[in-house]
């Protein structure tokens, strides 16, 4: 074979006086009008005209240190550069005008890569993690963590499904773009280049996206399958030292490889043999095929570059003939500096690029068929902790994925375990993190080490750590024990479910179950039961002793499950995603002890989001948290509905909230700095408490805090009311809940009084009257009258007075009480269950039984603390304990005074409470006076009826 010589010319000087080798980069633009070169020993970037090689190149000088990486967007409108100075810069191309410093690392950058549409830039180097950056707005979409060494090679799959990466130790990782999970990890498949930064491990997808090419450890190039990561074949036999760079021809028929033996070989990939070669004086560290024509641009470690013309013999097929459709079609993706393209969206979401959904990935190798609009790399769900379903060849058979009940579309959310964090090779992760404690695991020498820790260290004896030989990936924890499960690891392995109690009267109380042909997707724990949901849509329920109790069929693939005492909540897919890619989810709540299903319905999510946490509050209220940061709780109001009680996106902060749990007043979470979506085990995360905050509209009253408190109190009262009704039907003692309801009503009245004060000062008198009707205690309504009097609002004071008089009149005409059984089997009147608002004189006469109030209000019925008699204080009717009624009046007066902002005035008769002398009101007053005859005089309730 005739040996030809390629003439090289120096463009970047080697570093130092000794001319030490350095890594250099070279690339073409998409029309072959320019060549761009850079060197890690030179802070400048050179843009050459290949038609006029003798002309001086255009120099770009913006970095302070050597340029280690270059990348051009597919339409060549944007140039990205990375440097030893830790920065990544974006330029307009070919002008070279600096636009922005798009990101910074703490260590040098080593590699850059644009995706097919140019909407995403992957950046990596000596830092831990691969940053995926939106080129539209410069935001970080995700950080992929998995490599332990310097990342030296990145390649986006042309089919927009995967990102492949390689580090200096030769470890290759397949990343799924849509979910950010590691699909395959290939350890030590490439040479170790950690000792020499002038050559770096690289990898490259074939233009049709079917094959990933990686330098091998035997001076060869190994080809791996795109979906299974299995070795297909290799190019071997001609290099005598390791391959340090490789590049596919535009049509994928040929490959150029350079080696530490200073040779460059051109391979016919189909025939697996070399068709030409070239020997150079120094090692070539980078090459680039000319996109138009039969040529190869090369650059060596000393900064000399050149163009190898007629690389492929003229008797053979041209390297640019029959380019795959996915490559030949012009990219429609918008780039930051492409002024001729469409305008970017304000939000910067990837879904705003106008790209279609990615095609379903294959389970077997076959020729790739591309759709005309298959340009999307990812959607706007990149910020989601829950992952989309991966249809890679794996754990379950091809038939079960294609035809079985567990089949999911690629845009449907994958199942997840609440409180678990994604797998991070070599790092400890959470299998479970809840309000009680955490379960962590880390892989060591082929097995895992699991530890269980409780937040309250004084809870009891420490649970000993355990060795995990099954590879558990999910767990659940409660006061009684913990349950673990793992998916299938191969075609012959089985999924395992194991329960480990913390204490038992019997020996060998731990038990496990194995599943053949199905795998566990989610687990949950409750009082004396264990539940597991499998890929066959089976809900399997066990006792805590291991008895297989029930097997139920679910309506769709499971998303997650959670347990609380006797209740088990399961979320499943109701159907395929809507046309807007919104998840269609359904929830159901099962009572295990009774064998009933109290609730079932659709699970609402914020548009464009996925479910990221699901569970029960400390009080047992079902709750969900989505990827947009919205927390919703289920309430029996309006026949059963979901209410939003927190929105993490409203504060516009640079923080993500990783949900842990909640109670009636607080949200418990771990705050993660963006772009991190979940916490690390080490250092130990700090649990943060956030106030629940209903996403209210901006009110003209300007008191969002009080309005938020009002809505939350009302929701809590409704919840307590429902529980009291349930317990009364079952004949259970409701004393504790009645006391809690009484305290909540007092707190709600105080909130309402403050809102009334704000309405008075804000001239919202009609709203103040509406609020007054919601007051539970008569003494609080009298406080509202006093407030209106102090503020000299006669019409409002008269309205408050009418509300109180109407309430008293309704009570005097109320129906007879209904006898109700108490927990002791005796029959009591309604006064023992509802609130008694009788005066002391009425109690002495006992001529008529007390009647419940029928006044309109949003809150639950009024409750009295059982066993405590109402007392008479200043003639007012108060349901109070230990003389709290008079204190409430004084406190409400103080609240009213504080909110009104007026000084104390002398107590005088109120001239604003005189009613008109019309005939109709006179008749009404006669009836009212009959009721008032039993009440001591009140200066704020005088009537002038004559």
Major sheet, described briefly?
Answer: 4 strands, antiparallel
- Estimate the helix proportion, in percent: 10-25%
Percent in strands: 25-35%
Number of strands: 55
What structural class results from the helix and strand content?
alpha+beta
Mean pLDDT: 78
Distance between the termini: 127 Å
- The outline comes out as elongated
Task: Provide a descriptive summary of the structure in words.
15% of the residues lie in helices and 32% in strands. It has 946 residues and is of the alpha+beta class. The chain has a four-stranded antiparallel sheet, with no helix packed on it. Strand 27 and strand 28 (304-309) form a beta hairpin. Helix 5 packs parallel to helix 7 (794-812), helix 6 (778-790) runs antiparallel to helix 7 and helix 6 packs parallel to helix 9. The protein starts with 8 loop residues before the first strand and ends in a 14-residue tail after the last helix.
Topology:
Blueprint: E1 9-10, E2 24-28, E3 35-39, E4 42-48, E5 58-61, E6 67-72, E7 78-83, E8 87-92, E9 98-104, E10 109-114, E11 120-125, E12 130-134, E13 140-144, E14 151-156, E15 162-167, E16 172-176, E17 182-186, E18 204-205, E19 211-215, E20 221-225, E21 231-235, E22 243-248, E23 254-259, E24 263-268, E25 273-279, E26 284-289, E27 295-300, E28 304-309, H1 325-328, H2 398-402, E29 429-433, E30 437-444, E31 447-454, E32 466-468, E33 474-477, E34 481-486, E35 495-501, E36 511-515, E37 520-526, E38 529-534, E39 538-543, E40 548-553, E41 558-564, E42 567-573, E43 585-591, E44 596-603, E45 611-616, E46 622-626, E47 630-635, E48 641-647, E49 655-662, E50 666-673, E51 687-691, H3 704-729, H4 735-761, H5 765-772, H6 778-790, H7 794-812, E52 820-821, E53 827-828, H8 840-845, E54 871-873, E55 876-878, H9 884-900, H10 919-932
Antiparallel strand pairs: 1-28, 2-3, 3-4, 4-5, 6-7, 7-8, 8-9, 10-11, 11-12, 12-13, 14-15, 15-16, 16-17, 18-19, 19-20, 20-21, 22-23, 23-24, 24-25, 26-27, 27-28, 29-30, 30-31, 31-32, 33-34, 34-35, 35-36, 37-38, 38-39, 39-40, 41-42, 42-43, 43-44, 45-46, 46-47, 47-48, 49-50, 50-51, 52-53, 54-55
């Amino acid at each position: 074979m005739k040996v030809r010589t390629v003439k090289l010319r120096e463009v970047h000087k080697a570093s130092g006086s000794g001319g030490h080798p350095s890594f250099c980069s070279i690339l073409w633009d998409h029309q072959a009008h320019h060549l761009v070169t850079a060197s890690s020993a030179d802070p400048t970037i050179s843009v050459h005209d290949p038609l006029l090689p003798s002309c001086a190149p255009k120099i770009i000088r913006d970095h302070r240190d050597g340029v280690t990486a270059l990348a051009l967007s597919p339409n060549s409108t944007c140039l990205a550069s990375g440097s030893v100075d830790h920065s990544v810069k974006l330029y307009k191309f070919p002008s070279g005008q600096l636009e922005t410093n798009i990101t910074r690392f703490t260590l040098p950058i080593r590699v850059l890569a644009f995706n097919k549409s140019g909407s995403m830039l992957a950046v990596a180097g000596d830092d831990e993690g691969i940053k995926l950056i939106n080129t539209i707005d410069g935001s970080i979409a995700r950080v992929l963590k998995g490599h332990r060494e310097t990342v030296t090679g990145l390649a986006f799959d042309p089919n927009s499904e995967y990102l492949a990466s390689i580090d200096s130790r030769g470890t290759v990782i397949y990343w799924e773009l849509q979910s950010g999970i590691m699909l395959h990890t290939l350890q030590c498949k490439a040479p170790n280049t950690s000792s020499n930064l002038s050559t770096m491990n690289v990898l490259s997808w074939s233009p049709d996206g079917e094959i990933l090419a990686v330098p091998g450890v035997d001076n060869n190039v190994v080809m791996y399958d795109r979906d299974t990561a299995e070795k297909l074949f290799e190019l071997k036999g001609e290099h005598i030292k390791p391959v340090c760079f490789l590049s596919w021809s535009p049509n994928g028929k040929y490959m150029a490889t350079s080696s530490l033996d200073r040779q460059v070989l051109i391979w016919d990939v189909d025939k697996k043999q070399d068709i030409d070669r070239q020997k150079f004086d120094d090692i070539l560290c980078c090459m680039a095929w000319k996109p138009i024509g039969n040529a190869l641009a090369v650059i060596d470690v000393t900064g000399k570059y050149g163009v190898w013309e007629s690389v492929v013999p003229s008797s053979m097929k041209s390297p640019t003939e029959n380019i795959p459709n996915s490559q030949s079609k012009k990219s429609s993706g918008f780039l930051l500096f492409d002024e001729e393209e469409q305008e970017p969206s304000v939000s910067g979401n990837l879904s705003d690029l106008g790209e279609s959904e990615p095609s379903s990935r294959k389970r077997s190798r076959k020729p790739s068929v591309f759709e005309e609009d298959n340009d999307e790399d990812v959607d706007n769900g990149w910020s989601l902790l829950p992952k989309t379903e991966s249809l890679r060849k794996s754990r379950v058979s091809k038939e079960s994925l294609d035809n079985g009940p567990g089949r999911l579309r690629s845009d449907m959310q994958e199942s997840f375990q609440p409180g678990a964090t994604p797998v991070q090779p070599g790092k400890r992760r959470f299998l479970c993190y809840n309000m009680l404690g955490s379960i962590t695991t880390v892989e060591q020498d082929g097995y895992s080490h699991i530890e269980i820790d409780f937040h309250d260290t004084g809870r009891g004896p420490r649970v000993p750590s355990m060795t995990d030989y099954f590879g558990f990936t999910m767990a659940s924890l409660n006061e009684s024990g913990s349950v673990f499960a793992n998916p299938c690891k191969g075609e012959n392995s089985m999924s395992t479910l194991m329960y480990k109690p913390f204490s038992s009267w019997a020996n060998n109380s731990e038990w496990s179950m194995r599943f053949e042909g199905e795998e566990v997707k989610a687990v949950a724990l409750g009082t004396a039961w264990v539940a597991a949901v499998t890929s066959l849509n089976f809900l399997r329920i066990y006792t805590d002793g291991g008895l297989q109790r029930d097997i139920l069929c679910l309506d769709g693939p499971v998303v997650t499950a959670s347990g609380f005492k006797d209740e088990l909540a399961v979320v499943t897919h109701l159907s395929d995603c809507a046309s807007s890619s919104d998840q269609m989810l359904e929830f159901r709540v099962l009572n295990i002890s009774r064998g009933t299903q109290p609730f079932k319905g659709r699970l609402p999510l914020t548009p464009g989001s996925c479910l990221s946490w699901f569970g029960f509050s400390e009080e047992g209220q079902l709750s969900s948290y989505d990827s947009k940061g919205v927390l919703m709780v289920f309430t029996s109001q309006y026949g059963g509905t979901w209410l939003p009680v927190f929105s993490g996106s409203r504060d516009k902060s640079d923080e993500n909230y990783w949900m842990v749990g909640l109670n009636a007043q607080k949200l418990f979470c771990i705050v993660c700095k963006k772009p991190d979506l979940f916490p690390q085990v080490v250092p130990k995360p700090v649990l943060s408490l956030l106030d629940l905050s209903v996403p209210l509209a901006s009110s003209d009253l300007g008191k969002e805090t009080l309005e938020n408190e009002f809505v939350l109190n009302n929701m809590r009262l409704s919840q307590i009311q429902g529980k009291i009704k349930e317990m009364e039907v079952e004949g259970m003692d409701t004393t504790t809940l009645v006391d809690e309801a009484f305290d909540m009503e007092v707190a709600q009245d105080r909130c309402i009084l403050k809102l009334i004060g704000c309405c008075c000062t804000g001239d919202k008198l009609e709203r103040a009257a509406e609020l007054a009707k919601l007051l539970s205690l008569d003494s609080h309504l009298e406080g509202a009258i006093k407030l209106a009097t102090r503020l000299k609002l006669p019409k409002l004071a008269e309205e408050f007075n009418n509300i109180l008089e109407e309430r008293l009149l309704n009570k005097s005409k109320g129906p007879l009480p209904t006898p109700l059984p108490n927990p002791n089997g005796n029959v009591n009147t309604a006064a023992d269950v509802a609130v008694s608002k009788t005066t002391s004189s009425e109690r002495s006469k006992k001529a008529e039984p007390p009647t419940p109030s029928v006044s309109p209000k949003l809150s639950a019925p009024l409750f009295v603390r059982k066993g405590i008699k109402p007392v008479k204080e200043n003639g007012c009717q108060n349901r109070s304990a230990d003389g709290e009624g008079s204190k409430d009046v004084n406190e409400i007066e103080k609240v009213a005074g504080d909110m009104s902002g007026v000084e104390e005035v002398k107590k005088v008769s109120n001239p604003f409470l005189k009613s008109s002398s019309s005939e109709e009101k006179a008749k009404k007053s006669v009836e009212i006076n009959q009721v008032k005859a039993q009440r001591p005089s009140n200066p704020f309730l005088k009537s002038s009826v004559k």
